[in-house]
Amino acid sequence: VFPFLLAALALLLLMGPELFRVVDLFGNRMNTMFKLSYQAWTILAAASAYAVHFLSSRIFGKGPVVRLLGYGWALLLAGGLVASLYYPAAAAYTKAQAPPEQATLDGLAYVFKSSPGEYEAIQWLKGSYKEGEVLVEAVGDDYSDYGRVSASTGVPTVLGWTFHEEQWRGSRESFAGRQEAVQRLYQTEDLAQAREILSRYGVTYIYVGPRERAKYGRDGLTKFAELGEEVFSQGDVVIYRAYR
Fold first, then answer.
1. Per-residue CA distances from 19 to 73, 108, 141, 229 (Å)
2. Do 187 and 219 contact (CB within 8 A), yes or no?
3. Among residues 43, 68, 93, 184, which one has the fewest Cβ atoms lying within 10 Å of its Cβ?
């Protein structure tokens, strides 16, 4: 009974998104479907393992006609299994075509090549960060390299990807005004205004790199030398530790 319950549950999980969905900011069933399907395929795999045992133990002990059908079924099953093995073999072959020196499990290796200053800044923050400290960096579009320093170091930032924040929190209320505050912080030349923003969000580290310069311009960046101590500088990246 248990394997049948597993199979029924998996099929219901696959059928459910055809009738219902969790309402979210995407306005479609995408999240409902792919999150439930992850579970459905795992459950189906468990139920299918028992199904193979169940059928094979009964078919091959019957008459010649049933056995012939059983052999045909086993042949189809074996063909499907062999065909499914194409993907891991082809994927391994494809990945092996890359030069050996490029093969790595380090997800930041590409940053080291494309922006070595940022890579070193990330490593510095990993070693220097203490619990309770906060980073400020440029706020940009989701699925972009904005917010990469905070994501790569674990140091909390004033604001990350805004759509994801809204998606998980249900509204923009809890972080309303933060994106505009970060913009003012980088663009204003008024020390008092910048100091107030730093204090409001408890900012410890001010990150200045290519994204900050590209998005907010350079005019308001010189004031950070008066608002904090330069604790890291390499290439096109500077980190200031804000004065308390």
1. 33, 41, 32, 58
2. yes
3. 93
Mean pLDDT check: name the lowest of 89-98, 112-121, 157-166. 89-98
Give all strands (DSSP E) within the chain, no chain letters: 135-136, 205-208, 228-234, 237-242
Neighbours of 144 (CB within 10 A): 10
CA 72 to chain centre: 44
71, 152, 192 from 205: Cα distances, Å: 68, 15, 18
Could you tell me if 200 and 160 are in contact, meaning their C-beta atoms sit under 8 angstroms apart?
no
Cα separation, 244 vs 228, in Å, equals 9
pLDDT at 62 over 80: no
**E-state strands within 94-150:** 135-136
| Helix 178-187, helix 191-200: angle, nearest 10 | 140
Predicted model pTM: 0.75
pLDDT at position 112 is 92
- In the chain, the amino acid numbered 196 is E
Lowest mean pLDDT among 93-102, 152-161, 165-174, 175-184: 93-102
- What percentage of the chain has pLDDT greater than the value 70? 99
Tokens of 183: 């913009």
User: Quick check: 159 and 178 in contact, CB under 8 A?
Assistant: yes
